[in-house]
UniProtKB/TrEMBL annotation:
<keyword id="KW-0732">Signal</keyword>
<feature type="region of interest" description="Disordered">
    <location>
        <begin position="25"/>
        <end position="50"/>
    </location>
</feature>
<feature type="signal peptide">
    <location>
        <begin position="1"/>
        <end position="22"/>
    </location>
</feature>
<protein>
    <recommendedName>
        <fullName>ABC transporter substrate-binding protein</fullName>
    </recommendedName>
</protein>
Length: 462
């Protein structure tokens, strides 16, 4: 039960797309793809809807590959995905900094929209972009009958949460035409009361804050009384992992003004690392426009509601786009001010992920976003004999303004359009649909979720 529940929780985080556990080697592969943008084994046989008879199939997939400078020593999971689905994704990514709408318009004109659209956001969750694809005949309706027939493992996951396939389907149909144009994401595990009452659910209930990593050697130069990483770890162990907010929030950074003040003090120190100047901060996960909000939204004093992009106060019947709130405007002003004063680096908004990660690993930032590869930095500095570490710090644990948002109600929706999967019928023939839906079904299965969370049994049992 413990492994099952943990797999359910981690699946929502680790399932970046439905591409399985690919190690990135297939990105950009073109091979001998046919005019449909796909290729199957050249057997001369017609495709089957029986998984036992599936042949190897390549699919162009619009996705977002994770970037990690550390290469896997051994790929243990990709062969399992290949065996289970016989689908090999050939990845296509929207170039960094490219506007999604402009990119999509160019692909439609050139008839180069990939076979599967599975990027995290910006298309399937955007009615305007989906309308563009519909008008171009580049998105296929997915019927309830097909989902019931070809996605039995998904039906099992839904049943465990008390949801039927029909309920899941109806929650995601287009309200304008009553049709489903993209396979939605699975409902969150906390939809089930049993999971909400578990230790894992308890730690996830409520609105979570974003956080940053702060280099603790630099932190001590500015705030000598603040705990470094080792001191915080010792305190957590002494208290059996149960710390109060007062204990955790020992650094005097509780709002944007104080964060700005800290970054400014770092800049004034004129520090260097391996001959390179240390930039005070890198607060975004990537350089896209959307990353402005989802990288560190809680720094605004808001939280992303289940009804994103709305922030909601039900007691006052208020439903407001977060970008129209004073809190958001203040946050954008903070980001603009920090950039203009050199607190984020001149390349902040155009920097490629690989360049950013290389600088983080080299220790050239003092404060970085919670998603950034500080573990790879620690691996490097330990080999060099350096001893600094990174303090994990919430940004920010403050009470929300009740005039804007209400914390009294937490909803658990049946679905979300984030990370939905759309099929392009100009690149996918009808006889390929059973295998494609089976591929999606396998990626939604509990077995796949467990493998992502834990690996194969020998990887956690010894």
């Amino acid at each position: 039960m413990k492994h099952k529940l943990m797999a359910l929780m981690l699946a929502a985080v680790l399932l970046v797309t439905l591409v399985g556990c690919n190690n990135g080697k297939e990105e950009g592969k073109s091979g001998s793809s046919n005019s449909n943008g796909t290729k199957a084994a050249a057997t001369g046989e017609s495709l089957s809807d029986d998984p036992a008879n599936f042949k190897e199939m390549h699919l162009e997939v619009l996705s977002q590959l994770p970037t990690n400078p550390r290469k896997p020593v051994e790929d243990r999971l990709t062969p399992i995905w290949r065996e289970k689905t016989k689908v090999i994704p050939d990845f296509v990514e929207i170039p960094a900094g490219q506007d999604t709408k402009s990119w999509l318009q160019m692909q439609i004109l050139a008839n180069t929209v990939p076979a599967i659209i599975a990027n995290q956001n910006g298309i399937a969750d955007n009615p305007n972009h989906m309308d563009m694809l519909k008008k171009a005949g580049m998105v296929r309706e997915i019927t309830l009958e097909e989902m019931k027939k070809y996605m039995p493992l998904t039906a099992e996951r839904l049943a465990d949460l008390g949801v039927t396939m029909e309920q899941w389907y109806k929650s995601s149909v287009d309200p304008n035409d009553g049709k489903l144009w993209a396979i939605p994401s699975l409902p969150g595990p906390l939809l089930k009361e049993e999971y909400r009452k578990s230790p894992y659910g308890d730690s996830r209930l409520g609105q979570a804050n974003y956080a940053v990593w702060i280099r603790d050697d630099i932190l001590k130069k500015i705030y000598p009384n603040a705990m470094n990483a080792a001191e915080l770890k010792a305190l957590a162990i002494a208290n059996k992992g149960k710390l109060t907010l007062d204990q955790v929030m020992d650094i005097p950074i509780h709002n944007l003004d104080e964060l700005y003040d800290y970054l400014k003090k770092v800049k004034d120190l004129n520090l260097t690392e391996n001959g390179h100047p240390i930039t005070p901060g890198h607060l975004q996960f990537e350089n896209t426009r959307g990353a402005l909000y989802w990288s560190l939204l809680s720094a605004t004093g808001l939280h992303i509601s289940q009804a994103y992009p709305l922030v909601i106060n039900e007691s006052k019947n208020m439903y407001v786009d977060f970008q129209l709130t004073p809190e958001w405007k203040n946050y954008i002003s903070f980001m603009n001010k920090g950039f203009n004063e050199g607190l984020f680096g001149q390349e902040f908004y155009i920097q490629k992920k690989e360049q950013r990660d290389a600088k983080i690993i080299n220790g050239e930032y003092a404060v970085v976003n919670m998603w950034h590869p500080v573990a790879a930095n620690l691996e490097k500095i330990h080999k060099e004999g350096k001893t600094y570490d990174w303090r994990f710090y919430p940004i920010f644990v403050n009470e929300l303004d009740p005039s804007v948002q209400s914390e009294t109600i937490q909803s658990f929706p049946l679905t979300t359009k984030w990370n939905s999967k759309a099929i392009n019928p100009k690149k996918v023939s009808e006889d390929m649909i059973p295998q494609i839906l089976h591929w999606m079904d396998w990626n939604y299965s509990l077995e796949a979720a467990s493998l992502r969370a834990w690996g194969t049994p020998d990887m956690y049992t010894g």
